[in-house]
Design goal:
The chain has helices at residues 21-34, 53-67, 82-94, 124-134, 155-167, 181-193, 210-220, 226-232, 238-258, 273-281; strands at residues 10-15, 41-44, 70-76, 99-103, 139-144, 172-175, 200-201, 203-204, 263-267. It has 284 residues and is of the alpha/beta class.
């Protein structure tokens, strides 16, 4: 099985496990709104060190049950032995999960660098090999970094790491969020030059709040264009920042579509209005 169905343009949305019953109910309501756009896959992350694995499986299986859409669970190497990863993959399969987003994962809080547990895995390509070797029914996506992974010593080394993940059996690449399409196109061209042929899906997070996006981008070391920050800063007003963010994302996505992307992956943050506004405005 492949991560996305075979079609000219794919659409996917990413959720995260909510912390309260009210937030969970709101999330499902927003997913219902987003289903109007016919997503091909809905993915769900889990917390640092696998802290919400059980909740992630509950959400993915419930989204599939309610909406009949293909679902994907994130899976990282953090804090898990190979045997524990196998058990998770078995349980996810039993719950009807179609796909895995295979990641190394961030170092646990308090650790400067990533260190595998005894009996664990060190790299995402090793996780890919486990999934594809023992659970071939899963479609598998991996992460790509248009602005380079923050731990990579160089753009070139980061691409070599990506090439290993693709060689291990990745069906597609979903990128980290970015706000300058030139970074994506440079990344895509470099992947092509290396012989990477799987679909490269841009990850898009429409901005709805300046403070929030500054926190998010500081964590993942993504760059916000100065002109965009200046425009968002013109008014300390939620409606204004939402409008500016949606207009920026619409232009960004339209340019990506016009230059031949095979699909879009939206980081929806369990909400629907901004992504809905963008999808209503763009032309595929």
């Amino acid at each position: 099985m492949t991560f996305y169905p075979a079609k000219n343009f794919t659409l996917s949305f990413e959720l995260f496990p909510p912390k309260t019953a009210a937030a969970e109910a709101a999330m499902y309501e927003n997913v219902e709104h987003l289903m109007a756009f016919g997503p091909d896959v809905i993915t769900c992350t889990y917390g640092a060190g696998g802290s919400t694995q059980k909740k992630t499986l509950e959400i993915t299986s419930e989204v599939k049950r309610r909406f009949g859409v293909r679902v994907a669970s994130h899976l990282t190497c953090v804090g898990s032995t190979v045997d524990q990863l196998r058990e998770y993959l078995k349980e996810a399969s039993g719950r009807g999960v179609d796909n895995i987003v295979a990641l190394r994962g961030d170092p646990p809080k308090g650790q400067e660098t990533f260190k595998p547990v005894d009996g664990g895995l060190r790299y995402a390509n090793e996780l890919l090999a486990l999934v594809k070797g023992e659970f071939p029914s899963y479609g598998v996506a991996v992460a790509g970094y248009p602005e380079t992974h923050q731990e990579a010593p160089s753009f070139e080394v980061d691409l070599q790491n990506l090439q290993r993940k693709v060689a291990a059996g990745a069906d597609c690449i979903i990128t980290q969020l970015f706000y300058d399409n030139a970074d994506f196109f440079r990344f895509r061209d470099a992947c092509t030059a290396l012989g990477i042929r799987v679909p490269i899906i841009p990850g898009i997070l429409p901005v709805t709040n300046l403070g929030q996006i500054q926190r998010i981008t500081s964590l993942c070391k993504a760059r916000l264009p100065e002109a965009f920050i200046a425009k968002l800063s013109e008014k300390d007003d939620a409606d204004w920042q939402f409008q500016v963010g949606v207009e920026f994302a619409t232009q960004q996505v339209q340019e990506l579509i016009d230059r031949g992307i095979p699909g879009v992956h939206f980081y929806v943050l369990n909400k629907s209005p901004a992504t809905s506004a963008v999808l209503k405005a763009v032309r595929v």
